[in-house]
Amino acid sequence: MIELQGLTKRYGEKPAVDGVDLTVPKGEVCVLIGPSGCGKTTTLKMINRMLEPTSGSVYVNGKDVLRVKPETLRRSMGYVIQYVGLFPHMRVAENIGVVPGLLGWEKARIAKRTDELLGLVGLDPPVYRDKFPRELSGGEAQRVGVARALAADPPLLLMDEPFGAVDPLNRMVLQNEFVRIQRDLHKTVVFVTHDLDEAIRVADSIVIMREGRIVQHDTPERVLAGPANKFVHDFVGQDRALKRLARYGVREVMTEPAVVRSGNLAADARDLKLKGGPRYAWVVDDEGRLTGWLNLGGLADGTDPRGAVTETDASRIGLGCDATLREALSRMLSEGIRAMPVVDESQKVIGEISLKEIEKITERVEPA
Amino acid sequence: MRKKRVGPVLPLSIVTAVFLVLVFYPPSLEFLLRLMFPTRKEVLYSRAGLPLLLGEHLVIVLVSSVGAAVIGTCIGIFATRPSGEPYRGLLSDLASLAQTLPPVAVLALAVPLMGFGFKPTVLALFLYSILPVLRNSIAGLEQVSPELKGAAAGMGMTGMQILMKVEIPLALRVMFGGIRTSIVINVGTATVGAVVGAGGLGAPIISGLVRENPAFVLQGALAAGFLAFLIDQYLAGAERRIMRTYGMTAE
How far is A70 from chain B (nearest CA, A)? Predict the structure, then answer.
C-alpha cells in the first residue's frame, strides 16, 4: 500500500506538486493522468526518491520512505520508464538481472528468474536472452523493460509512461498483456500516462491532476460517467461514452450465439425459426469454426436455406475474445452489421455481441 | 549491420616480423641502408644498438602514457560528477594549455629543476599527451544519456555502481580512443628526449643531424614511425575486442 500525505514539491515559488493526498490500496493499479506539467511524473518520482519532496510524506506499507536509504528503497520497487532505459551494452538477460544482481542473488537463481520473466512477458527465452537491446523492436524492448522491473519480484511497480514510445498498435497489445500479467501478479502499481484510453484500459482508479493538484480520484467508470468539473469533462472529451466501452471485454458481455451447422443447415435453421429466433445465425463447420452467416429473416418457409448463406472469412467478422466493446462497436460500424460472433483462437464461435447489448451497457449508469 | 572489415594491404603479423628483424638483426638494416646511401662509410648508428634504443624508448612512452591515461581519466571522471562539474571548463582549458606547450620548451624549463635524462622527458610527454585522454573521457562520459543514468539510479544503483556498470562501459570506446591517440603521440614525440640525453630512438636522429648523416636520421625515424604504426594497429585490435564483448561493432 502506498500513502501520500500533503506531498508537495516546489521549484522556486511555483509548486509542481501541491499538497497531494492519495492512497493506493495493495494490489491495485492507480493511474496518474493529466496534461503535461500537471505534476504526475514529479509525484511518481517522489515515491522512489528520484526527487525529494519539499514537504509532506510518502509511506510505503506504513514506512516513511525518507527513512529508507534511496538505493535500498529503489531496489524494492520496480521502475519502468518511457525510454525503456535498457542498457545497450548488456544482453537482455543481463538487463533483466540487474536488480537481482544488486541484491546479491546467486547466478543460477538469476538465470532461472530471467527465463521465467521472459516467458511471462511473451518472449521465448532461448531466442531473446542473449540478444542486445539494439536487436529488439520497440515492443520487444518495452517487454524486456517490464520484465526487468519485475525481476526481483517487488510488491510495488512505478511506471512512467511505460508504453509511451511504442506505436499505437503495439501499445494496445502491451496494455492488454499488462492487464493479463497484473491479473496474476496483483502488484501495487502507480502508472503515469497522458493517454486517457490507456488509463481506462489498465486502471483500477484514475487520478486526474492539474497544476499539481488532484482534481478527481475515482474509478474509470465514474470518471467517465460523472466528471467532477468542467476541466475533467473537457479532459475526458465528448466521446466519453465510447471510452467507457473500452473498459468492457467482449467476454463479459457476449450472449449465447445463434448457430447453424453447415452440415445440418436446413434442420438447424428450421429449429431457430420455430423458436421465433433471430434474424441472423452464424454458420459453423463440424468443428464449430465460423464459415459464414445465414440471413434467417429473409428466409421464407420451406426454401432451401443454402441460398441465404453468405460465406465469409472468420478473420473478417469474427471478434477475438480479448477485444473490448469499443473495438466491437467500431468493427460493427465499419462492416455495417448489427451483430458479430465472438471466436476463440481456433476460430470457434463462443458467443455473440449485438448493438443492442452495447446500448444496454452505455445506458447503465454506475452508482456514484 | 556488421560492416565487413577491409583487410590491411599487408597483414599486421608480417609488418611486425619485418620490424623485429630490422631491429634485432642489424646486418639486415645495414644492408638496406647501404642500398639507399651507397656513398656513406658509416650507415649504422654505432653508439647504441637499436634493441637498447627501442627499449629506452618504450619505457619512456610507457611511463608517460600510463601516467597520462590514469591521471587524465581520473580528472575526466571527476569533471563529469556533479561535484566536479563547476571545474569542468577550467580543467579542459588547463589540459588544452598543456598541449600548446611544445615538449621541447617543457624540456628546457624542466632540465634546470629535474636534471637531464629520463625525468624531464617523461614530464614533457605526460603534459603533452594528457589532453586527448581528458578530452575523450569527458566527451565519452557526457554522451551517456541522462535517461539511462536515471534508469540505473531508479533501479537502485549507487553513484559508484552507475559509473562502473553503466557510464564507463558505454564511454569506453571514446575513452580508449583518447588513450590510443595519446600513446601514438608519445611514441613520436619521445624522440625529443634524446636532446636532453634520455636516449631512445631520437638518439640516432639527433646524432645524424649533428653529423650530417641522413642514414642515422632515417633509422631513428623509421623505427619510431614503424613503432607508432604497430602500436596503433595493435591498440585498434584490442579496442575491437573490447567492443565486441559489449556488443558494439567497432567501425
Answer: 7
pTM above 0.80, yes or no: no
Least confident range from A29-38, A101-110, A315-324, B126-135: namely: A315-324
Q: Which of B155, B158, B246 sits opposite A99 (nearest CB)?
A: B155
Q: Which CATH number characterizes residue A272's domain?
A: 3.10.580.10
A172 and A299 share a domain?
no
Which of B156, B169, B247 is closest, CB to CB, to A132? B247
- Predicted confidence at residue B3, as pLDDT, reads 47
Query: Which chain A residues have a beta carbon less than 8 Å from that of B166?
Result: 87
Domain of residue A25, residue span: 2-247
Q: What is the 3-state secondary structure (H, E, C) of chain A?
A: CEEEEEEEEEECCEEEEEEEEEEECCCCEEEEECCCCCCHHHHHHHHCCCCCCCEEEEEECCEEHHHCCHHHHHHCEEEEECCCCCCCCCCHHHHHCHHHHHCCCCHHHHHHHHHHHHHHCCCCHHHHCCCCHHHCCHHHHHHHHHHHHHCCCCCEEEEECCCCCCCHHHHHHHHHHHHHHHHHHCCEEEEEECCHHHHHHHCCEEEEEECCEEEEEECHHHHHHCCCCHHHHHHHCCCHHHHHHCCCEHHHHCECCCEEEHHHHHHHHHHHHHCCCCCEEEEECCCCEEEEEEECCCCCCCCCHHHHEEECCHHHHCEECCCEHHHHHHHHHHHCCCEEEEECCCCEEEEEEEHHHHHHHHHCCCCC
Residue A179's CATH number: 3.40.50.300
The alpha-carbon gap from B147 to the nearest alpha carbon of chain A, in Å, equals 6
Chain A residues whose beta carbon lies within 8 Å of the beta carbon of residue B152: 85, 87
ipTM over 0.90: no
CATH number listed for the domain at residues B51-245: 1.10.3720.10
How many domains is chain A partitioned into structurally? 2
Mind listing the pLDDT tens digit for each residue in A100-130? Answer: 999 999 999 999 999 999 998 889 999 999 9
Pick the residue from chain B with its C-alpha nearest to A97: B155
Question: Which residue of chain A comes nearest to B156, CA vs CA?
Answer: A71
Q: Do A89 and B153 touch (CB under 8 A)?
A: no
Q: Do the chains contact at B155 and A79, CB–CB below 8 Å?
A: yes
Query: Within this chain, do residues A197 and A335 fall inside the same structural domain, yes or no?
Result: no
A192 and A63 assigned to the same domain: yes
